[in-house]
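Final paragraph of the annual report: two paired records, presented back to back.
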Amino acid sequence: MLTMDQIGGSMAAVGLNALFGVIYALFINYANKRGWLEGYTAIAVVIGTLVTLTINQIFVYVSDDSALDLLLELAGFGASGAPMVANNIYEYLLRKRQEMLLELSEVGNGVGDE
């Protein structure tokens, strides 16, 4: 059973991981659009993982229940990673939409007609 301190720590960890995830996703998006991360994606992943692990280690630890400890760790990773995944899907769909609109405008302008 979790103590009140463990519940508070777990909630803090999930909240901080979610906040970090949003801020980090915004930064990664900004950096990608400027080409700063080209060839350095692995470093960005390692930094994000280290921050998430640090937050989890500070706030989450259930010494007498390793299964619960694992679930709380995974919740922290989910909270920190979800904003990045959502942003990645959004950017992909936006790119595809722009490609489709470009193709439609080219067909409407007669581009490609022989």
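The closing record of the year follows.
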Amino acid sequence: MSGVSPHLTISRVTGLVPGNAAARSQARAESEVENNMTKKKKTSIMLTDQDKKLLELLAKKENRSQTKELEYLIRRRAEELKIEEP
């Protein structure tokens, strides 16, 4: 069995000058993303080899990370079951 440890690493490169309004706006947006990232909890799950391969294929086909694909599938299933976010 192989496990998936869903966590994200964000790298950023900006060409903005720190003193201008665009830079301040970009910094606020990045700060909000970082704040959202700190709210996420690291979760480890165990998958069968077959499920791991399916997750890899789904993520590749949808052009997103395995973590993003898992998040998408969880949210979609919650919507199907009409479960509201806490």
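The helical segments are 21-39, 49-62, 66-80. This concludes the annual technical report; the extension proposal builds directly on these records.
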